[in-house]
Amino acid sequence: MRTFPAKYSALDDIRTFVAQAAQKASLTEKAVYAVQLAVDEACTNIIDYAYGGETNQQIEITCEITTEHLTITLGDKGHPFDLDSIEPPDLNSPLAERDAGGLGIHLIRKLMDEINYQSTQGVGNRLTLTKERRAD
Amino acid sequence: MELTTKKFKQCSLVTVKGRVDSGTAVELDEAFKEITKGGVHKIVLDMSDLEFMSSAGMRVLILTQKECNRSKGGELVLASIPQRIQESLQLVGFNPLFTMFDDVLTAVGHF
Q: Is the dihedral of CA A118, A124, A128, A129 positive or negative?
């Protein structure tokens, strides 16, 4: 497990950390990028919504490799923020009506094979992102 | 992230290198705003040396496209997009919103 400050400047290190795990799990180059992008989006959400902006509080990241999966767990002690409560963006609307934001959670859903979120009072929030090792 | 801006007769060319995320997207936004505030709404973004772009960068691209489209003939076009980034742009439905070119020269020639 490694801890990172909940700051945008930590995103570079976070992406490098999870990319190393993804490479160790022998993921394809495409899947390594997918993991980096999904984790970047998830950490941005933790900073923006769980912590309400950049802070010195922490994001705990654990990478676990099993026979079939790479599982990345992100822990924070901010406000509960359930990804399921967010409506998917309308990706077919014309430019004038297109919402510029809200794409991060959509990307996490598209890029990862499984997503689990758990919020426990007094303990914190835990987001688990799983990628199949045999994925393209 | 590294940014350079070059002004041509018919358009401006922005070259972005490195990584665009929640921390650096604001600089890209400022570079685009400086161009549109100067009255230029035809912009080429050279992405050939871009290594990473999160939704924070994608948001800037949509907002800039909206701004460019307000001017007649104005458009932000994307050039030389690395494959991984192209795939993520597809996932968020960018293809109908942006004209994309394989190389910068053709993109500049588009205007």
A: positive
- Beta strands B42-46 and B75-79, pairing class: parallel
Write out pLDDT tens, residues B11-68. 999 999 999 999 999 999 999 999 999 999 999 999 999 999 999 999 999 999 999 9
- In three-state secondary structure terms, A37 is helix
Nearest to B92 among A12, A30, A106 (CB): A106
Contact residues on chain A for B97, CB-CB shorter than 8 A:
95, 98
B98 touches chain A (CB under 8 A): no
> What is the length of chain A?
136
Which of A11, A41, A100 comes nearest B63 by C-beta?
A100
- Three-state secondary structure along chain B? CEEEEEECCCCEEEEEEEEECCCCHHHHHHHHHHHHHCCCCEEEEECCCEEEECHHHHHHHHHHHHHHHCCCCCEEEEECCCHHHHHHHHHCCCCCCCCEECCHHHHHHCC
Instruction: Record the pTM.
Output: 0.96
